[in-house]
Specification:
Structural class: mainly alpha
Number of strands: 0
Helix content: 40-55%
Radius of gyration: 19 Å
Largest sheet: none
């Protein structure tokens, strides 16, 4: 879980991880992905994957039997929780829900919803107390997006994974006239893109990266191509 203020680089890190672990080689990289847009220098993404000593319990919901204090200690050990009490509550409550209702396995939750994206999202959004933070419109869709890209879960209705309405996507949507300038409802942004792209070959969530970078770079002029 990445937690931080707005526009500090969380999405950049996630996109780098996505590139590193992409199951296909079809990923497109723009000049905005290069330092100072110098494409001649190239770039390398490297990662070391491990479970830090003493923190592994947070990835196993069955360990909630050890109590919230054990989770707080594990999350605080390497500053995995920026706000110790709040983030521990979020993590522990989701883990408790998985442990008590889904046999400590997220795959059981997916199977319970027949692997249907719409049903899974509805479960999250209507049970905010059991799935805090994850039930928000941004995180719910981003979690589904990560499941679709990096797991073998046989998800149905993947096109229903909506665009992730963070601050940059909202700004880009306003800039393009997709939503009114006074839009504050992020669900309205997701809905607008979903209806706009219905019947096309473009999934709304596929536009998250391009829109985010366009806004982050201050809306530079771009060359448009007919799809």
């Amino acid at each position: 879980m990445l937690v931080g203020g707005g526009d500090v680089g969380k999405t950049t890190i996630i996109e780098a991880i996505a590139l590193l672990f992409s199951p296909t080689n079809a990923t497109l990289v723009s000049d905005a992905d290069y330092y100072n847009r110098d494409t001649t220098q190239g770039f390398t993404i490297e990662a070391i994957i491990s479970l830090p000593l003493g923190t592994d319990i947070i990835f196993f919901p069955e360990e909630t039997k050890r109590g919230r204090a054990a989770y707080l200690s594990a999350l605080a050990k390497y500053s995995l929780a920026s706000f110790r009490e709040k983030h521990t509550d979020i993590w522990y409550r989701i883990a408790m829900t998985l442990a008590n209702e889904f046999d400590s396995d997220p795959r059981v939750l997916l199977a319970h919803c027949d692997y249907d994206v719409i049903t899974i999202r509805e479960l999250l959004l209507t049970r905010k107390r059991q799935f805090p933070y994850l039930s928000g419109p941004k995180l719910a869709n981003y979690w589904l997006y990560m499941l679709a890209c990096f797991t073998d879960a046989p998800l149905k209705n993947k096109a229903a994974i909506t665009i992730i309405p963070d601050v940059h996507v909202v700004r880009a949507s306003v800039r393009l006239g997709i939503v009114p300038t006074d839009t504050t409802d992020r669900n309205a942004v997701s809905s607008a893109w979903f209806h706009l792209l219905a019947g096309t070959r473009i999934a709304p969530v596929d536009l998250h990266g391009p829109l985010w970078r366009w806004s982050r770079l201050g809306f530079p002029d771009v060359a448009l191509q007919e799809l």
